[in-house]
Amino acid sequence: MHDPSTLAFSIKRPWPHRTRFDNMRWFWPDMINVWHEDPETDGSDDSCGWAYARIPKAIQQSLEFEAGCEAREPWLLRDRAKQPISIVDAEAKLRGAILTTARTCKIKISPEKADLLAKELIHSPVDNLRSMLCFLPGWHTNYEEDRESDRKECALRLYICLARILLTRARPWWKHPRWHFWHWRIQVRPIQSFKRWAFSRCCVCGGRFSYGYAPTTNQWHGTGPLWFRSETGVEHSDCDNPRSDNAGAAATPSPDRMMN
Q1: How confident is the model at residue 249 (pLDDT cuts 50, 70, 90)?
Q2: Which helix (H) or strand (E) holds 9?
Q3: What is the largest CA-CA distance in the chain?
Q4: How far apart are CA 155 and CA 136, in angstroms?
Q5: pTM across the whole model
Q6: 137-164 residue pLDDT tens
Q7: CB atoms closer than 10 angstroms to residue 234
Q8: Residues in CB range of 199: below 8 A, 6 or more apart
């Protein structure tokens, strides 16, 4: 289950707050949060392309054609190992793949920038693309034979990955989904805290919540604080399954009984 909400902007309150949990340091809590609610038009939680730019269908078809050419005459995936042994060879092949992908996506990129991007993606200590520049049947697939369809699928994954990177970096700032104001949901923290304090009640004991209290819930789709009526499925942390602690205490034998 994924949440389609992504924090686009946050506005801090003008007066600070000091907490004892952070060595008595001052910090400014959020007063207003602007959330981007993805409409999930394509069935995913990132149909707007927040994490990476969306690939048009025409470009994706062109990438499939390039992957088919790679499958018939291997050039990028000719290494039959888990990853290329030579880093220099890996940089050269990835630079060529970047230029091919940029030409397919109609993105202008110089050989110097392609070389820098290839080195960045090859030598990344967190996640690099060295293992995607090879094809080993039985390791990259579930079949021991070298099949053309498997090579095409492996090459297409590489081209799709590079296309996402190039399209995201070439996307203007004003085309980022955070500026989709028609998908905004504005959360005002003081008003939310007031509604919870004034109208929400615990679904177990019926008690009120103190101002700024963060209750627990027993459901995924909560209503949130409401005006003049309680939100559903919220409870105090002490009221959340209170019998579990007693059952656990009863099931644990005493030290004297364990000694005997």
Answers
A1: very low
A2: strand 5-12
A3: 80
A4: 12
A5: 0.75
A6: 888 888 888 899 999 999 999 999 999 9
A7: 25
A8: 225, 226, 227, 228, 229, 230, 231
| Average pLDDT over all residues of the chain | 86
How far is the C-alpha of 107 from the C-alpha of 62, rounded, in Å?
14
Q: How far apart are CA 240 and CA 235, in angstroms?
A: 7
Q: Which of 49, 58, 9, 71 is nearest to 165 (CA)?
A: 49
> What is the reported pLDDT for 254?
42
**For the chain, domain boundaries:** 57-175, 200-260
What residue type is 106 in one-letter code?
Answer: K
Token representation of residue 70: 């790679």
d(C-alpha 109, C-alpha 240), whole Å: 57
Phi/psi-derived region of residue 91, left when phi > 0, alpha when psi is between -120 and 50, beta in every other case:
alpha
Give the separation between CA 162 and CA 99, rounded to whole angstroms: 10
CB 19 within 8 A of CB 27: yes
Alpha carbon 164 to its chain's center: 15
DSSP H or E run through 154: helix 148-170
Helix (H, G, I), strand (E, B) or coil at 40: coil
